[in-house]
Amino acid sequence: MNRADFPILKERIHGQELVYLDNAATSQKPQQVLDAIVEAYSTWNSNIHRGVHHLSQVATMHHEEARKAVAQFINARESEEIVFTKGTTDAINALAFSIGELLLHEGDEVIVSGLEHHSNIVPWQMVCARKKAVLRHIPLKEDLSLDIEAFKGMLNARTKIVSVAQVSNVLGTIQPVKEIIALAHEKHIPVCIDGAQSVPHMKVDVQDLDCDFLAFSGHKMYGPTGIGVLYGKREWLDQLPPHEGGGEMINHVRWSGTTYNELPYKFEAGTPNFVGSYGLQKAMEYMEQVGLKAIEKHERELTEYCERRLGELEGVNVYAAGQQKVGVISFNISPNPLIPSSTNPFIHPLDIGTLLDQQGVAVRTGHHCAEPLINELGVQGTVRVSFGLYNEKKDIDLFIAALQKAQMMLS
Fold it and tell me: Which fold does the domain 291-409 belong to in CATH?
């Protein structure tokens, strides 16, 4: 866990040492990834899959090696099951369109959960509106865990796909996706896992989960922006129609019609982000060098330590406190610790975030692109802290001290 590998952590914010606790939004990049991006543009930049000249061949090789590396990282059966996208949002949008074209008819149903990021809600709303299908969500229990018994009752012959996050981007709680997948598969229903908040923080094995699809982003796992992955089982990708048309995804184009390329290229229209894929490969290599189990253990320890420190403060309400989490905590805080939060409005999260920023502490505030969940909590938003492999207990101590100062100023 070498912080020196991350140049941005040396920056000072408003004259203060940077305490970066917004990793669920995006992670910082190690020097190895930054060097890879410069190397790509400096030494072998060229469009791929199309040129016979040396630079094109080298660029193509690196891009396809990155695909193989992703397949190995998540234990896909073959690299052809890896589709490069712009990120998690792009991956789920692509899947929703294609699933809609293949499977959805009027009256059919799509199931998500009450914990989802907008990226795993809105694309399904759009395709359901287009196909006159119905979007349903798994309700939450009082402790904010998913009601699996209710989910069992929701599955029926009309259910065409289930799409759920493995880790909540608001609460950090780990969802029982393996059980959800098994229950759906009993009725031959495919399942997509939103891995945006799980793949960067824990080992995700698609064969062990038996998920049909997995979406995740490079920028949340120490890689570049603009690169992501949609994993799909070959049997599904073979059936699904492409969601975009253009170059690369075609086999032959005639005025009478077009035939599509083989997997995975039929889903990758246009010039791919071959520099991003190379950067993602270097990010995965960095994570594997540190060790995925070591990363998960380290971040769980930080999460537990931070919850404990927050619990020492008066007027703090941590959501889903004590549950198994990976690197994310959401909370609100009352302005006067002598008045119970139930009778005293919380300080607005934006005010807390602004005062923390003035002290060099970067957190996230608001609804975190999960308005249905925030509405369920009955609040305007939350303050969210989230950890990466470079964070230390010292960061949490500085954050707690800054939070106490902010609470005092706003009381």
Answer: Aspartate Aminotransferase, domain 1 (3.90.1150)
